[in-house]
Every structure is written in structure tokens, then in C-alpha cells.
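INFO batch 0412 | record 1 of 1 | parsing
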Amino acid sequence: MYAEIDFLKLAKYSKPGPRYTSYPTANEFRKDFNATTLLESLHRADSNYHDKGLSLYTHLPFCKSACYFCGCNVIYTSKEDKKERYITYLEKELALLQDSMDTKREVVQFHFGGGTPTFFDAKQLQVITEMIRTTFPNFAATCEMSCEIDPRHFNEEQMAVLKTCGFNRISFGVQDFDTKVQQHINRIQPLDLVADSVALARKYGIQSINFDLIYGLPYQNQQSFQQTLDFVVKLAPERLAIFNYAHVPWVKKTMRKIDETTLPSPEEKLKILQHTIHFLHTHDYEMIGMDHFAKKSDTLCLAQNKGELRRNFQGYTTKGFSQTIGIGLTSIGEGVDYYTQNYKDMASYEAQLDNKVLPVAQGIVLSPEDILRKEVIMGLMNNARLDFKVINEAFGIDCLMHFHDELEALKPMQDLELLTILPDGILVSPTGKLLIRNIAMVFDSYLVSNSTRQFSKTI
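INFO prediction complete | emitting C-alpha cells
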């Protein structure tokens, strides 16, 4: 079904644009959103959305060395005392959260992100998890508990602790199995190492494994990435996150170590993506949202088929909307009508907590129009469709009138069979999913007023 589209003509849509892990995006967060604003937002959420579940995201920021492609907020260190010190400050933050909100609400999702969470040893992982579960004692029996893992820093003792603590999902950072690519992104990670890590997770009963892959890295081409895909399907993870490499050297200094002349062109990246989709489709994987794939029997596929998929800073979820509480350095929290982000530098993070103040660096309170457009953009990003009736009833508007200009702007994409505009909604085609960021951008009111913002390219 993908071969009917000339992918090369879509290369013209390769332009800077947000990834929409949030709307408004983090670029719109304001410095005048502070700890006081967050407290007001948390109290409002407890009053208005007390029946909604909680998602907990905990950022463990340390890495031993830099991967040149990485856009995450990390601290490079090999010192044990920094990890122990960080744990003491997580404990301080958790104590403040316990005093600031109803922490007895049900937790439906929990995620360790980084950095490299498994740079912390087994005992440290257990201490952190137990601290969090003490603060938030009502974990649902069906809670999704996941941990990002670098196979280069992973052992059986850590896996045993994760299993004992209730983790049921594991995500391995793989990126690419090609040796030349690994050398030029400073991440040497042999196939056998990854295979052993997968076997270890399976040994402990983990039935949901995700691989993170990236296309658009130095020296990648369709043929080399095919070899990576061959290895992937043999290891048979249930889910795949296949990201378009975001080359933003003006944001991440380590990316300056990558020779831009070695990066594949937008046309080559589209070939890689086109072939990847076709190959995975023949191996029982379906494309989910913008950059994820899952086995056809996976709950993500089933939720998308029903139009019930949601996306937050932890990835795609079948749990519906849940208020996200960010814990730790640089972590982001989300409510129906706000976003908040902790400080990115350790000195400021610690100073706030030493003063018994939540370490809020920035955030935003959403206007009614923001909330409306958030629902529209996230609906498209999550489920590749938009039901006007649902939006009309929820917000008391007429989508055809309210978004008249936006629907007109989408008509050229309709002519390319990327989507269909119907009287009762928008339906994105399988090929349109590849350009879902471009489609969502039409509804982003901030892009017009902030046209100088620098984003990664959509393709």
C-alpha cells in the first residue's frame, strides 16, 4: 500500500518543525511559570481531575560518555558520589510533592528515563523505586512500569531488582547495528551484547520489549539499515521506536562532532523509511503514530484501531490521559491545562530543593484555545484521525468554521493523498503518517508568531 506513493516527491516537506511531544511545545514555556504556579496547577488538578490516573516520570540524568546523536539532557560522569547525592535530592523533591498534591491518586504509568537509568546500580535503582512507591502508594495492578536501558550498562542484578520492583516493560537503546555507523556516533554496541540483554530480560519474564532505532545517522543508507532490520526481527521486540535523527548542533554541542556531509539526504532518508515500513509490515509490525511500530497483536495497535491511543512524554500509552508528574532534573510534568519543567542544571535544581521549593524552571498555563488545539494536534499525532463531532461537543465549537483556514491549508496534502478531509473529520492515510508533523503544524498557532524558532527537519 506504500509503494503506490512516490515518496521522493514528499521530500519537499522536509522542513523544520516540532515533534509535538507537547502542545504548546517546550519552546513556548515561560520563565514566569514557577513553583507557586505549579502548586496552583497541582491543586487545580486535584480538584478537577482527581479521578484521572497519574503517570510518573523520573529522570536519571547520568551517562558515562557522550553518544554524538543524543539530544537528551544528560550529565557525563563516572563518579559514584554524584549518583548518591542525586538520590538524596530526589528524596527531597518527593517530600515536597507529597506536601503539594494528592499523592494517593492511582498511578497507571511509571517510567525511568535518562541519561542512562542503568548507570545506577541495582541497589540504587531499588532505593529510588521504593522511595517513589512510598510517596505514591497507590500503584494500579495493571500499571505500566518501564525502564530505558543501555545494553552496555546492564546486568542480571539490575534486572532482578527491576522485576522485583514491578517493572514489566523494557526499552533498549539500539540505534543501529552497523559498525561504521556506531563508530561515528561514538556508541560501540555489538549485536551479541544486545542479544544477551534481550535474553536476560526474557529470562525474567519481560514480555514487552522495545528497541529504539534511529535513521538519518552518518553513513546510513537503505542497504546498511536493512541489515539492522534483519537483526531486529530475529530478536523480536514487541515494539519499535524508529526516530528520524534530529541534527540540532546549535542545541547539542556533541552533535558538532558529526560530519554533516556524511548524513543521508532527505531523499535517502525517505527511501530508508519507506523500505522500513514495508519490511516491518511483512514481519507482523504495524506503524503506530509518527515513529513507532508494534506487533499487530500489541495493545498499541488495538488502541489505535479504536482511536484511543494517547501520547505523552513517556511515549504512546493505552491508558488514556493521565496527569504526568515529572521527578528529577529537567523532567517535564503535564496536566490538562499546564506544563512544567524542572531546572536543567544541577546547581539550580539542588538550590531550590535546599530552600524547600519545588525545582521549577519554566512552564506554561494553557489558554482555552491552547487546550483545544492541543486536543486536535495530539488526536492527529496519536490516532491519525480527527473526529469533528467529539471536538465540537467537548469544546462547544463548529470545527468546520473554527478551523476553516487550517482545513484550506490542508487541501494540497489531500491532493497528494496524505489525508482526506471529510464532513465529519480528518483521516490521515498510511503515507500521511510519515508527514504527521507537517499536518499537525497547520494547527499550531505559535508557529506563525514564532517563525524564527529552530527545529529539526520533519524528514
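INFO post-check: The longest strand covers residues 139-149.
INFO record closed
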